Amino acid sequence: MWRLGVLVPVLAAGLMIVSEAVLADNWSDRGPVFESDRRQREEQEAAERAANRKTYEPVVYPKYMEGGERPDIKPAAPPIVYLDRAEEPGSIIIDTQARTLYFALPGKKAYAYPISVGREGFTWTGTERISRIAAWPSWTPPPEMRERVPGLPVTVSGGMLNPQGARALYLGSTVYRIHGTNNDRSVGRANSSGCFRLTNEHVVHLASIAKVGAKVQVMQSYAGGVSPNAPLSSIFGFLSPEPAAKPAKPVKKKPVAQKKKPAAPAAATVQVGQPAAAPGAAAPSAQTPASAAAEAVAAAQEARTAAAEAAAAARAAAKTVAAE
């Protein structure tokens, strides 16, 4: 009994730790980090920044601003995750709720890039195509943005001072883009005007593998499952027997056309008591000896009858002459 009294608290503590590990989205030095807590903290920080901005005087930038230097930024590949359903390789899926951009790879794999998304009131969903990919793009704030934020420049040339970063992937004919940033701390937040920001190292990597014309799906939440670990079926796949190879179907050969040889003409058979066949007439069929003998007897009888009739005709003619 005393063993049971020791084991029950230990098991209960273990279950609590496991449940926390399951519910937690991440871990830090202080313990599990939950997605809800992270969102709440970010919202509080955003509210504090908005309150602080009201106390600042508006910053006025030059109308035509130089973007500054353009260093050679090395691409950095993000982690690879495993999807539970196949996606079109080369396509892009943006999960705004998870703040992640997935670049689909063959074999149900994908690169997972952390991104920033549109803040409240600037989110959108839909499907577009990459219409252009530019290195160190210039930035021209749209009129509505310059109206919201007075003091913005009319245009900024490409460079490290440009908020578009080292690369930009334009989405169709919209004003939205997937681009880099000159402030890595903005990645992972909901603070843009509808564009999607990556770190410069990540956007350089994405721009090197994405193609113009690739499909980009922007959705609130990706419907498929995503896992950082490979599925067990792929790890222990060697234990399952390999399916037997299907027998190869026999190849049907087309018959070779053969030229027909002309048949040799059969020799004509001349029978006793019958005239020979005329040229071009069909040759008589072969007869057995019994049938040939019967035909010969019939022909002889016909000949005797014809001779008797001729003799009777001659006697009648003689009587006629004598009477005269």
Describe what this molecule looks like in 3D:
The chain is α/β, with parallel strands linked by helices. Among the domains are: 20-56; 60-226, L,D-transpeptidase catalytic domain-like (Beta Barrel). Helices cover 30% and strands 19% of the residues. The protein contains 6 helices and 16 strands. The protein has helices at 2-23, 35-55, 143-148, 200-209, 232-235, 289-323, and strands at residues 26-28, 31-33, 64-65, 80-83, 92-95, 100-105, 109-114, 117-118, 126-135, 155-156, 167-171, 177-179, 190-192, 196-197, 215-219, 226-227. It has a 10-stranded mixed sheet, covered by helices on one side. Strands 1-2 form a two-stranded antiparallel sheet. Strand 1 (26-28) and strand 2 (31-33) form a beta hairpin. The radius of gyration is 51 Å and the shape is elongated. It starts with a helix and ends with a helix.
Précis, in short:
The chain is an alpha/beta fold and 324 residues long. The protein contains 6 helices and 16 strands. The chain is elongated.
Q: How many strand segments?
A: 16
For the biggest sheet, the summary is:
10 strands, mixed
Question: Rg, please?
Answer: 51 Å
| Low-confidence runs | 266-286
Mean pLDDT: 80
The CATH architecture classification of one domain is Beta Barrel
Beta-strand residue fraction: 15-25%
Query: Please, what is the CATH homologous superfamily of one domain?
Result: L,D-transpeptidase catalytic domain-like
